[in-house]
Specification:
Elements lengths: L1 H143 L2
């Protein structure tokens, strides 16, 4: 009985040892798995942080580009507005010069027309005077009996 009890104890102790070894092995495996999970989590977090930083950098560059294009557009709009004002000023000056020129041409035409009318009137008066003088000579010549 003592031998059997000792044998059972050895078996019991060896099975306890086996269970203990198995538990230690399982603990080591769990520990390795947990370390692996921690490493994987750290790697994923680092990758995500790098991607976030890259995305931030890209976003900042895009914002800088937008600011640059906004400034360029404002400068272009200012140049266009200045050119438009300059063109409007030139058109106004051209319109004024054209109006002055038309006015001068009308004045010159009126002066020439008045000159022609006066000349025509003077010629008519001279013709009338010549006709009257001729008629007077004829009247006096008939009267005096030539």
């Amino acid at each position: 009985m003592t031998i059997i009890k000792g044998f059972d104890r050895r078996r019991s102790s060896s099975s306890t040892q086996q269970e203990h070894l198995k538990k230690e092995s399982d603990n080591r495996n769990l520990s390795v798995l947990q370390e692996h999970n921690n490493y994987t989590t750290d790697a994923v977090l680092n990758t995500m942080k790098e991607q976030f930083d890259q995305q931030q950098s890209i976003n900042n560059k895009l914002l800088e580009m937008l600011d640059y294009y906004k400034d360029a557009l404002q400068a272009s709009e200012e140049i266009r507005r200045t050119e438009q004002e300059h063109m409007n000023k030139q058109f106004k000056e051209l319109e004024e010069r054209l109006a002055d020129r038309i006015s001068q041409q009308i004045d010159n035409r009126d002066k020439e027309m008045m000159k022609y009318i006066r000349s025509s009137q003077q010629q008519q008066q001279e013709q009338l005077l010549e006709t009257a003088a001729t008629q007077q000579k004829g009247f006096f010549a008939r009267l005096l009996g030539k």
